[in-house]
């Protein structure tokens, strides 16, 4: 295990992820965090299995992970970047963020059961409670999706 700053030990497992994100099955789409640099980048994975509930209807006989769920998985990884940065000693006081914008979404190849989705997210900048991220998803080293995300800090 690698220590990546106060309070963050890699890899971050599913139990720790569940303490950081409000999502739960079947909508929690991050299984593990492999790499993390506070305030900069995160690498996380999602193991795509044949028993995912969305495969029943998307598509029968030819299961493909919906692109919108790939984007959601990337957004959850960006949320983990914010949460883990806060745990590592950032000055963020209220680190729960909501996805507010998706730009430049691109899908290059289908994601199917048996794939391991590798999500790489980079924080471009924080502006007035909003985070702007570059995100991409890979399977076996090949980019299957990419987008830019914007998240806003939850207002209390």
What do these coordinates show?
The protein has 156 residues and is of the alpha+beta class. The protein is built from two helices and eight strands. It has helices at 14-20, 67-87, and strands at residues 2-3, 9-10, 32-37, 41-47, 97-107, 116-127, 130-139, 142-153. The strands form two sheets. A six-stranded antiparallel β-sheet has the order 3-4-6-7-8-5, with helices on one face. Strands 1-2 form a two-stranded antiparallel sheet. The longest helix is centred in the middle third of the chain and has 21 residues, at 67-87. The radius of gyration is 15 Å and the shape is globular. It starts with a strand and ends with a strand.
Q: Secondary-structure map with pairings?
A:
Layout: E1 2-3, E2 9-10, H1 14-20, E3 32-37, E4 41-47, H2 67-87, E5 97-107, E6 116-127, E7 130-139, E8 142-153
Antiparallel strand pairs: 1-2, 3-4, 4-6, 5-8, 6-7, 7-8
- The radius of gyration over CA amounts to 15 Å
Q: Give the helix proportion (percent range).
A: 10-25%
How far apart the termini lie comes to 36 Å
**What's the number of extended β-strand segments?**
8
Number of helices: 2
Query: Which sheet architecture does the biggest sheet show?
Result: 6 strands, antiparallel
SSE string: EEHEEHEEEE
Strand order of the largest sheet: 3-4-6-7-8-5
From the helix content, strand content and strand pairing, which structural class follows?
alpha+beta
Mean pLDDT: 92
Beta-sheet strand percentage?
35-45%
Poorly predicted tracts of residues: none
The coarse overall form would be globular
